[in-house]
Specification:
The model has no long low-confidence stretch (mean pLDDT about 85). The chain is elongated, with a radius of gyration of 15 Å. The protein is built from three helices and two strands, in the order H-E-H-H-E. The chain is an alpha+beta fold and about 70 residues long. It has one domain (about 5-65). A two-stranded antiparallel ribbon has the order 1-2.
Length: about 70
């Protein structure tokens, strides 16, 4: 996934930008089964790659405040 960041890196970047009270709430964690169709359609070996991405990506709500 282009542009994806680890949760800790994302939190650090928000903090460096001046945001406070940073909260990251994971709402969905993508599993190997979710990736199999996509990987297969891309011509990749889903059996080899899916275990590597199992649980490595997710969707989240991000909340933070920036003081005025």
């Amino acid at each position: 996934m282009a542009g994806a960041l680890h949760e800790d890196d994302f939190r650090a970047k928000l903090t460096q930008a001046g945001f406070q009270h940073v909260e990251i709430e994971i709402v969905r964690e993508y599993r190997a089964a979710d990736a199999r169709t996509f990987l297969g359609e891309a011509g990749l070996d889903a059996d080899a790659i899916a275990p590597l991405v199992d649980g490595a990506f997710g969707s989240a709500f991000v909340r933070a405040t920036k003081p005025s």
